[in-house]
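Consortium newsletter contribution from the modelling node. Members have asked for a concrete example of what our holo predictions look like. Here is one, prepared for the iron/sulfur cluster complex that several groups have been discussing at recent meetings.
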Amino acid sequence: MLGVYVHIPFCLRKCGYCDFHSTAAAPPVIEAYLQALANEIEFWARQTAGELCSTLYIGGGTPTILTPGQLDRILTKLAAAFNFEPGFEFTVEANPGTLTPEKAQALAQAGANRISLGAQAFDDGLLQKIGRAHTVGQIHESVGLIRKAGIDNINLDLIEGLPGQSLDQWQAALAQAVQLKPSHFSCYSLILEENTPFYQAYQEGELTLPPEEETAAMFAYTQEYLPQQGYCQYEISNYAKPGREARHNLIYWQTYSYLGLGSGAHGYYRQIRYSSTEDLGRYIRSWRKHEPAYASWEPVTADQAMDEMMFLGLRLVKGVNLNSFYQRFQCSVHEVYGAEVDRLAARGLIEEREGFLRLTKLGRSLGNLVFSAFVRPPLRS
Ligand code: SF4
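And here is the predicted structure:
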C-alpha cells in the first residue's frame, strides 16, 4: 500500500483556529509554487517508478483556490506521473465558496472521485465567528456542484465544540448535514493550537468554549446518531456508508507508506519519515532547480514503528490486528506492551476481540489517555 499526499498551502484567508500550513498568497506566488511542485512530482515519480500507488489525496490549505486551468494541469500531471492501481481513490479537499461549476468539472475530468468538503458548521453565525469564508448556503451549493460534475463520494468535515456552540446546535448541524446525504463524515473536536488567534483570545479571556461535559456530550451524541443514519463509525472521528471508508486515511492509521509532496507535507517511505520545508520561498527556489527541500529526514526505528502501529491502529474501531503486528515485528503485542495492555484493560479502556486489540466505548472517549500509553521514550529497548 502506497498513498500519495500533495499539499496546496493556500487559502482565501486564515481561519481563527487554524494552525495548518496555509497562507493567503498572490497569484504569481501560487503559479511559482505549482511549477516547483511539478518538479517535485517528477522527482518522486522517478523514485517510485513501477510501484503501485493506491490513493491520491490533494489537501491543504484550499486546493480549490486554484483556477480550473491550474487544477487541471496539476491533477492531470499527478495522475499520469504515478502508477496508480485501477479504480484508485482520488480525493481533493474543497472549501465551500471556492468551488465553481468549472472547477468541479476540472476535478472530475482529471479523475477525482472523492471530494472532502470543509463544511465545519451549519450555522452562519458560527461560521462567521470561527473565520470561515463561506455560508451554509454555499455548503449546499458546493455539494450540488460536486454531484452535478458526476462525483458522488463526498465527505463533510464538521467541528464539534466551537465557541458558543451548544449540544442542541450540534444536533441540528448533524441533522442538516445528514440531509445532504454525503457518503462520509469527519467530526473532529476543536483543539486550541498555540500560535492561533483563538488560542490568544482564549488566553485573554475573550473566547469562551463549551464546557468539557458539553463537548463530551456532542461526541457521544455523534456516536449514537450517525450510525442510526447508516454511517458506521470506523475510526474515532470518522463515519462512513458501507464501503466508503477513506482509503487514504486508512493508510495513515494502518501505518502503510505514503509520499508527501509540497511545502510542509509529511511522508513515510521505506522506513524513512520526512517533511518538506514550510518556507514557501525556499521550497520554490529549491525545486525550481530540481533540488529537494526537506525540513526533516529520519529513519524510523523498530520501536517507533511498533508504537505508531499501536496508537494509530487503536484509533480504528476494529483496532490493531494482533497477527499483523506479529508478522511485521516477529514479536507479540503482549511481549512488548504486556503491562500497558493489562493496566488499560483493567480500567475498561481496551479489550481483545477476535484477534484485534481495540478501544472500548469508554476508551474511545478517553482516546488520548490510551494512545499516550503506547508512546515509549526513544531509548528504551
Ligand atoms: S480553510 Fe482550512 S486550511 Fe485554510 S485557514 Fe481555514 S482551516 Fe486552515
